[in-house]
Amino acid sequence: MRFIRLEIVLSAIVLAAPIAARAQNYPWCSNFHDGAGTNCGFSTYEQCMATARGTGGYCAPNNAYVAPRAAGSTEPMKHKHRLRSARRKL
Fold it and tell me: Which residue of 22, 36, 52, 80 has the fewest CB atoms within a 10 Å radius of its CB?
């Protein structure tokens, strides 16, 4: 019976624990003139300026931006080509 109670309590703690928020990864930041802060949630310079113009602010590149890696094979192309040419010789 104690094991079941312990399991219920531990499950409740795990479910109630806050999930870590991931930072938004966008290349442009809007810096507001009125001191309202910075918003780094813009994909394009034009999006950023559309927001910043209304406050007299400006846009700058996000120094913390990391471009996503393109999906694809990590195998070098030369290696694939060698395999094809080796098969032809057989």
Answer: 22
Contact 55, 33 (CB under 8 A): yes
Domain limits, the chain = 23-67
CA 83/CA 61 separation, integer angstroms: 43
pLDDT tens readout for residues 40-69: 999 999 999 998 888 889 999 999 998 888
Indicate the length of the chain as a whole number: 90
CA distance 89 to 83: 10
d(CA 19, CA 4): 25
